[in-house]
Amino acid sequence: MKIRFLCPVCECPTSVQSAGAAAVNWECAACDHRQVIQLPATAPTICAVCGNHELYKKKNFPHWLGLSILTFACIGFLTFMARYEWGWAWAVLLGSAAVDGILYLSVGDAIVCYRCGAQASGTTPGAEHHPFELTIHERYRQEKIRRDTV
Fold first, then answer.
1. Domain span at residue 20?
2. Residue 108 φ/ψ, nearest 5 degrees
3. What is the Cα–Cα distance from 18 to 122, expressed in whole angstroms?
């Protein structure tokens, strides 16, 4: 299992990885903050970084890649339509949709913490992991705003 997260002190991006259940003594390379991170053997039910119980599942796929496919498909479609090549225009559009669908089905899921944003990948989410809910996210966003203003 691999967990990607931001340092709780300096927000430097980092990750830890383990083959099974293990406690990892992690130290931030930027600010020397130390923390013990407990990596579970199965899908986590609590966040290994902050201990939060509210987690959600999402596709473990880089958003920039999906948006790049969409952008190139739109540009290709409009270019071929401007040249009145209808067949190629629709081939580009439908081909990009097929590539997007194949990527969606082949990519696994990641489990994400609402509070700190830590992402656990390399495991299969269980029934307790639900898709993203905006109301829960907003509650934690407001909590972070209140904490930062004090």
1. 2-60+108-149
2. -80, -175
3. 10
120 in the same domain as 53: yes
pTM over 0.85: no
Residue type, 79: T
Report how many domains make up the chain.
2
CB atoms within 10 A of CB 113: 24
Q: Which two tokens stand for residue 120?
A: 């656990």
The answer to whether 133 and 108 are in contact (CB under 8 A) is no
Give yes or no: residues 67 and 44 share one domain. Answer: no
Tens digits of residue pLDDT in 62-113: 889 889 999 999 999 999 999 999 999 999 999 999 999 899 899 999 999 9
Whether residue 112 is found in the same domain as residue 54 = yes
Domain identity same for 16 and 56: yes
What secondary structure does DSSP assign to the chain, as a single string? -EEEEE-TTT--EEEEE-SSSEEEEEE-TTT--EEEEEE-SS--SS-TTT--S-EEEEE---HHHHHHHHHHHHHHHHHHHHTT-HHHHHHHHHHHHHHHHHHHHHS-EEEEETTT--EEESS---TT-EEP-HHHHHHHHHHHHHHHH-
